[in-house]
Design brief:
This is CWF21 domain-containing protein. It comes from Leptocylindrus danicus. It is a single chain. It is built from 9 helices and no strands. Helix 2 (about 60-85) runs antiparallel to helix 3. The protein has helices at about 30-45, 60-85, 95-160, 175-185, 190-195, 205-215, 220-245, 245-265, 275-294. The protein is elongated, with a radius of gyration of 58 Å. The termini are far apart. It is about 65% helix and about 0% strand.
Length: about 290
């Protein structure tokens, strides 16, 4: 329970009793007005939007008519009192007073009707003028669209392009190329104008080694790329050389050595068989050699 709001006890509510919001709190009038003002501005671009209902509702015609009648009767009553308060020779009879009051009321009503007629006429005239302006604006837009369409068709037929839509089509492509070629031929400094000057070399920041390794320098990017690629390729070649076995070279060397030994010891190639045969021939040679020594 907080500030007299909420449960007196939280028993049986399965909650902690913490009040999340005060539903009975009434915001101040200024805050309510600001909120309504913000809501009105979301749907209106005017800075003078009000929150009054009279600004959004139309006036009641019966109330306006009643107010007009009251004003008219007040004027008539003032006129009656002025007539009745006359003294002496200016004193009027009751019948004359009634007639003058009646004439005064008729005059005021006629004056009001004339005024309303002028207002209605002015309103109708303004509405008619606004409608005429709207029609002229619509006609101008339609005329412009039709002109754009006609110019586009003419440009397509003539092989020209009209980007502006005002009838002034551009020159054909061939004439444009010829004019560009003439300008290029007459302009002696053409190459000098279009070829940019070389950018100054950036200053070294950490010595030649660091400068060479710096990728952000435009002149060093390609060198760094190729050098790193060459180093990677060299490492790959060395790694492949270590992993590759040269058995064919070793076999060729071994065959050459065996042939030399067979020639030296007089071993017949036709009866020579690698393995056991070679061992047997070698044993015979050893025996012969031993007997020769003896």
């Amino acid at each position: 329970m907080y500030n007299g709001i909420g449960l007196t006890t939280v028993r049986g509510t399965a909650t902690s009793g913490h009040v999340q919001s005060n539903r009975s709190y009434v915001r101040p009038s200024q805050e309510r007005w600001t909120t309504r003002q913000r809501q009105n501005h979301q749907t209106s671009t005017s800075n003078t939007t009000t929150t009054s209902l009279s600004a959004t509702r139309r006036p009641n015609a019966k109330l306006l008519e009643h107010q007009r009648r009251r004003e008219l009767e007040n004027k008539v009553l003032e006129y009656r009192l002025s007539l009745e308060n006359r003294r002496g020779e200016l004193t009027l009879k009751q019948k004359e007073v009634e007639e003058r009051v009646k004439d005064r009321r008729a005059f005021l009503e006629k004056e009001y009707r004339d005024y309303m007629y002028q207002v209605s006429v002015s309103v109708s005239v303004r509405r008619r003028e606004e409608e005429e302006r709207r029609q002229r604006r619509t006609a101008l837009l339609q005329q412009k669209e039709s002109n754009v369409a006609q110019n586009a068709l003419k440009s397509l037929e003539n092989g020209t392009v009209d980007d502006d839509g005002d009838g002034a089509a551009c020159a054909p492509a061939e004439e444009t190329k010829k004019s560009e070629a003439a300008e290029f031929k007459n302009d002696k400094d053409h190459h000098r104008a279009i070829i940019p000057a070389p950018a100054p070399a950036p200053a070294p920041r950490g010595g030649p080694t660091n400068n060479y390794r710096d990728r952000r320098i435009p002149g060093r990017r390609n060198d760094y790329y190729h050098s790193s690629r060459n180093r990677s390729q060299q490492r790959a070649e060395r790694r492949q050389a270590r992993n590759t076995t040269d058995t064919h070279a070793k076999a060729a060397i071994k065959d050459t050595e065996n042939a030399r030994l067979r020639g030296a010891f007089g071993i017949d190639d036709r009866t020579f068989v690698s393995g056991q045969a070679f061992d047997r021939d070698l044993a015979k040679l050893v025996v012969l050699f031993c007997t020769h020594i003896r």
